[in-house]
Amino acid sequence: QVQLVESGGGLVQAGGSLTLSCAASGVIFSINTMGWYRQAPGKQRELVATITSGGSTNYADSVKGRFTISRDNAKKKVYLQMNSLKAEDTAVYYCNAEFWIPPRFLEVWGQGTLVTVSS
Asked: Mean pLDDT across the chain, nearest whole number?
């Protein structure tokens, strides 16, 4: 009933920009921390950025200064603005969120969206 759907992935040249979005749907009381993770070929999934319900953000060192995570609680969306993209950013990007659906918490992952950075 509750799901996350990412969009915005695609092919972009190195140095370019791309913005990913993730929309939550379903009956949700509230959304706690939301985040973006990525998995490159041959590598484990890694954290890219997170944002708490209060707006506190955290970024992986590899993307600091280049990526910006934001959220729109009214729209139940989280975004990832990616600038100065590098070939190393190529990966499948996954949206993650922790929902509060009384009487329990529920962690949900999106299906992923592919970002390919060419040089």
From this structure: 96
